[in-house]
Every structure is written in C-alpha cells, then in structure tokens.
Design goal:
300 residues, alpha/beta, TIM Barrel, 4-stranded antiparallel β-sheet, binds flavin mononucleotide
C-alpha cells in the first residue's frame, strides 16, 4: 500500500502537510506531533526583513471557522535560517518554506537567500488578504501572477508552489497564469476575506477591520476551486481549506489534489495531521486500494 506522493520531483512519505501560519515552524507543536509522520511541514510566511504584523485584536472566532488578520508577522529570513531550519532538519519530513513580500524584489531576495539551504520546496504566498501591499494584490491579477512566478522561477533552486487566492471571480485564470509563468505546483486556497462586527461596542472585532476566513466554513468553496483548477492546468495541486478529518482530506484528493494541508484544525486539535495520515492508511486498507495516487482527481 502506497501513501507516497510526488510534488515536482520531491517525494513525500504521505500527502499530509501543515498549512502555512498555523503551525509555526513546528517547534511548538513537536511535543504533540511526531513531525517524522508528516509528508511535509509548511512554515509560516517569511519575508526578507522582520515584519511586526497588524495591531491587535487580530483573531476572531466565527461559525465553523475563524477570522485572522495577523498580517504576516515574522522574524525575517536571517533569524528563520539560523533558528528554524536547523530545527526542521532533524526530522524525516520535507520542508516547505512559505515566502511573503511587499514587492517582487522582496520575494526574489528571500528565494535567493534560500537557494543553498536544506529546503525542499518554496511556497510563494501571493494571496494574503491582510497586508496592504504585495500579498493579495499580486494574487488577484493574472498578469502579475505570471510575472512574479517568472521572476521567482528565474532565481529559485527549489521547485516553486504558487499559493492562489480564492478572492477572485475565476480562479482558473490565476492558476493558468501561474502555470504560464513556470510554476511547478499550485496550492489553494488561502483565506476568504471576511468581516465581523461587535454589536455591543458597535465596532469592528478586528483592528484591521477585515480578516481572512478559514476553517470548515470555507471547505465547500475550497473543494470546488481545487476541482476547477485540477481540470484547468497540468500541475500537481496541494488542496486546503477547512480540512478537519480524513474524510475532508479525501474530498480534496478525489477532487484533484495530490497533497493536502491542514490549517485551522491544528488550533482545535494539534494532532489532526497525524490522525489524517492514519485515517488515509485505514481507508486504503478498508477499500483495498494499493496506491493513494489512484484516488487523485477520481471524481469527474
Ligand atoms: C492564523 C493564520 C495564519 C496564516 N498565515 C499564513 C501565511 O503566513 N502564509 C500563507 O500562505 N497562508 C497563511 N494562512 C492561510 C492558511 O495557510 C490556509 O491557506 C487557510 O487558513 C485555509 O486552510 P484552513 O481552513 O485549513 O485553515 C494563515 C491562516 C491562519 C488561520
């Protein structure tokens, strides 16, 4: 029985990974989760210089999910390389670094800096709704998606995952643009822009006014988008958005995802990723399926 999957020549022990920003670099979680059991750890977004993030409050609960406007707080690439990468190297898992920036130059700087580091894949976040410049501004315009993908590919030594925004009318347009720019893998979806109002204080709950909606509330949108993108491009897809358990993960795989990321669920149950790996194993056994890859995009 095979759980191994391949993303642009990188073989993962299984298709289950963490979603950027919900697992740090794995340190805090390592007392709950055996990182050796995960297909990959995807780190929190890292920029060329430290970012302070947005003012608080920047997290709010919603029905079936949460809003966040963390604003890509991160210590910058130098601290990340010295502190986080040596920690991750100890484990038998793939390391995927999520990269953020305010300009193409920022992204390129981080990608160049990581060229000779022990990093397996790079995930380029062009879809964060919580930063004023960069982020989502790149991710909503097909022309700029293609351009930034091309610039990043020019300097990258690792395969490139472009992380797509769901805050668009037709996600297949940005997916095709990333493919045209030379992306190796696509990941989707990032959060959906949302808002919550405190009726007693008559003000916005988040200091940033808007935030990114994640969790089970967004899963049907995410599954639909993975299905659409899988049928529009010829690239492997990492599916995410509200995955809480093995059934959710299987939905994404059947819709066309080669691998899956677990985000918000980590906050409710830090062991979710490991439980999904075990659940996939059991599902294959029970249904006498030899290879997880035979399920990818099976539902047409
Ligand atoms: C608190 C928080 C922080 C996040 N930070 C990042 C980030 O740094 N980079 C990124 O690409 N996505 C980030 N995301 C988006 C997630 O990686 C994921 O795309 C999204 O939350 C949908 O998956 P989920 O419903 O399983 O959480 C963040 C999400 C949350 C909830």
């Amino acid at each position: 029985m095979n759980l191994k999957v391949n993303l642009a020549g990188v073989e993962l022990n299984n298709p289950v990974m963490t979603a950027s920003g919900t697992f740090g670099s794995g340190m805090e979680y390592s007392s709950f989760v055996d990182l050796n059991q995960l297909g990959a750890v995807v780190t929190k977004g890292v920029a060329n210089v430290p970012w302070p993030g947005n003012p608080t409050p920047r997290i709010a609960e919603t029905y079936g999910g949460m809003l966040n406007a963390v604003g890509l707080q991160n210590p910058g690439i130098d601290v990340f390389v010295e502190r986080d990468l040596p920690f991750l190297k100890q484990y038998d898992t793939k390391v995927i670094v999520n990269v953020c920036g305010k300009s193409t130059k920022d992204y390129v700087e981080v990608v160049e800096r990581l060229a000779d580091e022990a990093v397996d894949l790079l995930e380029i976040n062009i879809s964060c709704p919580n930063v004023k410049e960069g982020g989502i501004a790149f991710g909503q315009n097909p022309k700029s998606v293609e351009e930034i993908t091309r610039e990043v590919k020019r300097v990258a030594k690792q395969p490139i995952i472009m992380k797509l925004s769901p805050n668009v009318t037709d996600i297949t347009e940005t997916a095709k643009a990333a493919e045209a720019g030379g992306a190796d893998v696509l990941s989707l979806i990032n959060t959906l822009t949302g808002m919550k109002i405190d009726v007693n204080r008559r003000c916005f709950v988040l200091a940033n006014k808007t935030g990114g909606l994640s969790g089970p509330a967004i899963k049907p949108v995410a599954v639909r988008m993975v299905y659409q993108v899988a049928n529009a491009v010829n690239l492997p897809i990492i599916g995410m958005g509200g995955i809480m358990n093995v059934e959710d993960a299987l939905e994404f795989i059947l819709a066309g995802a080669t691998a899956v990321s677990v985000g918000t669920a980590n906050f409710a149950n830090p062991c979710t990723t490991m439980e999904i790996v075990q659940g996939l194993q059991k599902y294959l056994e029970k249904n006498k399926i030899d290879d997880i890859n035979s399920l990818v995009g099976l539902v047409k």
